[in-house]
Amino acid sequence: MNTGSTWAGYNSYLDTFYNSLIKIPNAPYPLNPNAPQPLATDVPNKIHEQESVGYMVQKGPLPFRSTYTRAAGGTTLHWLGTCLRMFPEDFKLKTTYGVGLDWPMTYEEMMPYYRKAEREIGVSADVDDQKYEGQFFEDEYVYPMYKIPQSFLDKKMAEGVNGKKVYLEDGEYVVNVVSTPQGRNSMPNPNYKAINKGKDFEPVGAVGNSTVGKRCDGNSNCVPICPVQAKYNANKTLDQLDPLRVDLLTQAVASRVLFDKENGRITGIEFKSYESPHSPNYTTHFAQGTIYVLAAHTIENAKLLLASGIESTSGFVGRHLMDHNCILGWGLMPERIGSYRGPGSTSSIPYQRIGDFRDHRGAFRFEIGNWGWSWPKGDPFTSIGELVDYKRSALTPDAAPSLIDFTKGKLYGKRLRHFVNQVMTRQFRIAAEVEQLADPNNRVTIDPAYKDQIGNYRPVIHYDIDEYTRRGMKVGREFTRQVFAHLGVEDFTYFDPDDSSYLEFEGEGFTYDGAGHLVGTHIMGTTKYNSVVNKRQQSWDHPNLFLVGCGNMPTISTSNPTLTMTALTFWALDNILEDLNG
Question: Which of 13, 181, 428, 571 could hold 28 in an S-S bridge, CB 3.0 to 4.6 Å?
Fold first, then answer.
C-alpha cells in the first residue's frame, strides 16, 4: 500500500488529487473502507438526512462540519500550516472571565515546549510581528526561519484598513493586518543559532527526496496537499525514526485497549491487520509494552477509549468536542489583488483574539484568504462553469449575487479570458474563526449499530453551538461588513437558510463552516473528577497510559491548534521518558 512516507507514495497522493473532480481536503488520500475518514462532501443540506451519510454519524442538533485524515502523517497532510501560539490568558479562561475551563499549566510553563515545537515544524515568522495584544516571547528569541512574504492582497488590505476603527456592540476596535506564523520553509534565520547552541536551522526537504521542498513555491494548494512538501507534515518526523528501534505498521488499525480492571494498568493494544484496502479480510494481533500512548487525534482517541470500556472517573471521555466555527465573508475588491496565488493565508486581523468581551461572547481571529472564493463557492471552477453555461448552480441561488450578474450571456474565448483576468482576480474572502467553549454535551459516542467493514466503531457525533459562540459569530459578521466598507469591497456573501449549518441569533442568520480544528474529548485538568488526563498528559485512571494530541486541550481559544498540540506532545514525551527512567 502506497503511503506518504515515501516519495513515490506521496506522488501517488498528488496523482489522486489531480484526478479528483472536487478538491476537498481529503481529495488526495484514497478512500480506505478499512480505515474510513470523514469527507467535506458528507454533510448534506438537511440535518435529518445526514445520520447515515459518510463516516461520522451525525446526531445533531447541528452538523459537525470538520474532517480529518486517517493515513500515515494524519491531518498534517492537509493542514494550512498556521502556527500561532496561544495567549497567556487562554490558559486561564475560567479564572479571568468566568467562562469555559482553565488549563492545569500556564503559558510560561509552555514556552520551552513551544520553542521545541517551532523547531520541529520549522516555523517561519517574525517575533516582532507577533508581539501584539500583550503577547510575549523569551528575550532575544527568533523563529527558525524568516517570515513567509505577505501577499499582494495582504499589502492592499493593510493600505485600506490599518489604523481604521470598527464599532461593535461592545466597543470600538482598531484594525491592523499582521503576518501569520507558517509551518512551511522560507529562508533560515541565522540569528536562530544563538538560542540553539550555535547550530544552524536547515529546512527539511521532502520525505524520500530531500532535494525537493526546501522552500515554499507558492503552489496554491497547501490544502489539500503541498506538491513539494515545503509545508511540514508529520511524515517528516516519522522519517527520522530509527528503524532498529521503531516499528511502523501500515494497514493496521487499533481496535481495543486492554487493561487490568483491578489496578487500571494497560496490558496491551489489540489491532486488526488487513490484507488490502480493497478487502475486508484481516487478522487480529496484540502489541504490548511498558507505557502506552494513544495519538490518533481528537475523535479517534475518544472512539478507541470508548470501544475499550475506558470511560474515566470523570465520565468525560468523548465529551467537550470543540472546533472553530467559521463565518465567511466574500466579495470583489475594487482592484485586482492577485487571487489564487501563494499559500492559502499569509496574514490575519488578530485584534479580536483577547479582550474583556470574552466574558460574554467568543473571541475570533480574521483569517485573510489568498485563494479568492475557493472556500465559500468552490472557485475558480464553480464561477467559470456558470459563466460558460450561463445558468445558476446550487451554489448561487437566485437570492444570492453571482459573477454571471456581470454578463449578458454565455462567455467563452477572449471574452471569458478577459472576464477572468479582470473580475475573478478581484475575488476576496475573509473568515472569522470563532472560539467555542468546552461543553460536555458536545461529544463523541459509539453505537453497535454503526461499524465499518472490519467491525470497528464509527464515531457518533452530538453537536450544537451555544449562545456564547453565536454572539461571536454575529459580531464577526458585523466586523466583516465594516472591514469591507473600509476596503470598498462589493459584498457577495450569502447564507442559505436551507443549509443544514444555518442558524440564527438575535434576528440574524448565518451558515458556519468547520475549520478542521478538532479539540477536546479527553481534556486535561487538576483532578480525576474534572478531566481525563493530568498536566503530564497521563491518564488519571490508567497510570501507564498517555494521551497526546488536541483532545487534551480544555479550551480552543483562537489559535489553530497544531503548534500547541506539538508542544504538548513534547511535554508528554519528557514525562514518558521520566517514567521509563525512574
Answer: 13
Q: How far is CA 556 from the centre of its chain?
A: 11
Percentage of the chain exceeding pLDDT 90? 80
Q: Helix 413-422 and helix 381-389: axis angle, to 10°?
A: 140
CB-count burial class (<10 Å; 0-12, 13-18, 19+) for 323: buried
Residue at 79 is within a domain: yes
- Report residue 231 as a C-alpha cell: 509545508
**DSSP 8-class letter at 58:** E
Dist CA 94 CA 526 (whole Å): 13
**Which pLDDT band, with edges at 50, 70 and 90, does 402 fall under?**
low
Beta bridge partners of 231: 184
Residue with cell 486535561: 524
Is there a domain that residue 582 lies in? Answer: no
Note whether residue 407 is domain-resident.
Answer: yes
Give the E-state strand segments of 396-435 in sequence order: 427-434
| Phi, psi dihedrals of residue 289, rounded to the nearest 5° | -165, -170
Read off the pLDDT of residues 302-345 as tens digits, 9 standing for 90 and up. Answer: 999 999 999 899 999 999 999 999 999 999 999 999 999 999 99
Cell numbers 437558510 correspond to what residue? 497
Provide the 3-class DSSP secondary structure of residue 165.
strand
Please count the structural domains in the chain.
1
Enumerate residues 6+ apart whose C-beta is below 8 A from 222: 80, 81, 184, 231, 343, 344
| Residue of 142, 105, 143 whose CA lies nearest to 572 | 105
The three cell numbers locating residue 527: 483532578
- Pull the grid cell for residue 97: 472571565
Q: How far is CA 191 from CA 16, 55, 119, 196, in A?
A: 41, 47, 14, 9
Q: For residue 213, what pLDDT band results from cuts at 50, 70 and 90?
A: confident
Q: How many residues does the chain have?
A: 582
CA distances for 57 relative to 124, 167, 188, angstroms: 38, 41, 45
The DSSP result for 199-246, as a single string, is: PPP----BTTBTTS-SS----S-TTT--TT--B--THHHHTTS-TTT-
pLDDT digits (tens, 9 = 90+) for 168-188: 999 999 999 999 999 999 999
User: What is the C-alpha to C-alpha distance for residues 166 and 483, in angstroms, rounded to an integer?
Assistant: 7
Pull the grid cell for residue 184. Answer: 512551511
Q: Which domain holds residue 425?
A: 7-123+135-231+321-514
Q: What are phi and psi of 499, to 5 degrees?
A: -70, 145
**Residues 542 and 263: beta-carbon distance below 8 Å:** no
Helix and strand totals (H; E) in the chain:
12, 19
For residue 216, how many C-alpha atoms fall within 13 Å in the half-sphere facing its CB? 30
Per-residue buried b or exposed e for 403-442, using 16+ beta carbons within 10 Å of the residue's own CB: bbeebeeebeeeeeeebbeebbbbbbbbbbbbbbbbbeeb
> What gap in Å lies between CA 379 and CA 180, rounded to an integer?
24
Distance CA 566, CA 96 (A): 26
How far is the C-alpha of 372 from the C-alpha of 514, rounded, in Å? 18
> How many of the other CB atoms lie within 10 Å of CB of 330?
24
- Class of residue 19 by CB neighbours under 10 A (exposed 0-12, middle 13-18, buried 19+): exposed
| Phi, psi (rounded to 5 degrees) for 397 | -65, 170
* Position 382 in a domain: yes
Q: Give the C-alpha separation, 16 to 19, whole Å.
A: 5
CA gap 518, 461 in Å, rounded: 12
